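STRUCTURE:
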């Protein structure tokens, strides 16, 4: 039987966690956070925009023995869909057919999403519960990304219990290959334009 939660952050700040925070000297700061409003429990417009921009997500589950498992899922921007202020959905495409996540969710619905944007050095942690949906064609059509060449096997729906944003400390700044290629293309075009201008100034008669 679960212990009732006084604050949304209690989903992660168990009595054992709080005891360690007290020993390490951070409990007072988190007590102020808790009484000041704790973590958010619904998806805000800012979070929805962040989710819609992501091309990658990590989904954590655990089996009945508590053994954790993390699965990566990716796709074009928008493959993660905010369906309402508590629900995130995505099409789960065919992979290596181990089905560890599906097995874990069948026994234990508790799940966790981890989103990280290296370019903006921002990361979001979401606690909640997830379930697989295999017999809803309308939902699947809503979640499948147009033009994405993969075969969907089921939909995953994630219900948010609480979420929090980490500070950017220790996040290395990295950029998507497509973003780098576009920036280099712009640079090359600018160089070509400047070289043409230099040549024109050197040879005004031509």
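SEQUENCE:
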């Amino acid at each position: 039987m679960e212990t009732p939660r006084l604050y949304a952050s209690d989903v992660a700040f168990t009595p054992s966690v709080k005891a360690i925070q007290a020993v390490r000297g951070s409990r007072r700061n988190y007590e102020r956070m808790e009484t000041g409003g704790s973590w958010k429990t619904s998806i805000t417009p800012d979070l929805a925009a962040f989710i819609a921009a992501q091309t990658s997500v990590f989904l954590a589950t655990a089996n009945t023995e508590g053994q954790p498992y993390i699965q990566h899922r990716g796709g074009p921007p928008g493959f993660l869909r905010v369906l309402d202020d508590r629900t995130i959905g995505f099409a789960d495409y065919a992979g290596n057919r181990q089905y560890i996540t599906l097995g874990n969710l069948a026994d234990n619905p508790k799940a966790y999403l981890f989103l990280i944007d290296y370019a903006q050095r921002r990361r979001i942690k979401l606690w909640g519960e997830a379930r697989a949906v295999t017999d809803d064609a309308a939902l699947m059509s809503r979640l499948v990304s147009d033009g994405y060449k993969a075969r969907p096997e089921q939909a995953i729906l994630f219900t948010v219990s609480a979420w929090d944003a980490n500070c950017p400390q220790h996040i290395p700044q990295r950029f998507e290959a497509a973003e780098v290629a576009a920036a280099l293309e712009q640079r090359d075009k600018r160089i070509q334009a400047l070289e043409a201008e230099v040549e024109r100034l050197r040879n005004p008669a031509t």
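REMARK: Residues 1-39 form one domain.
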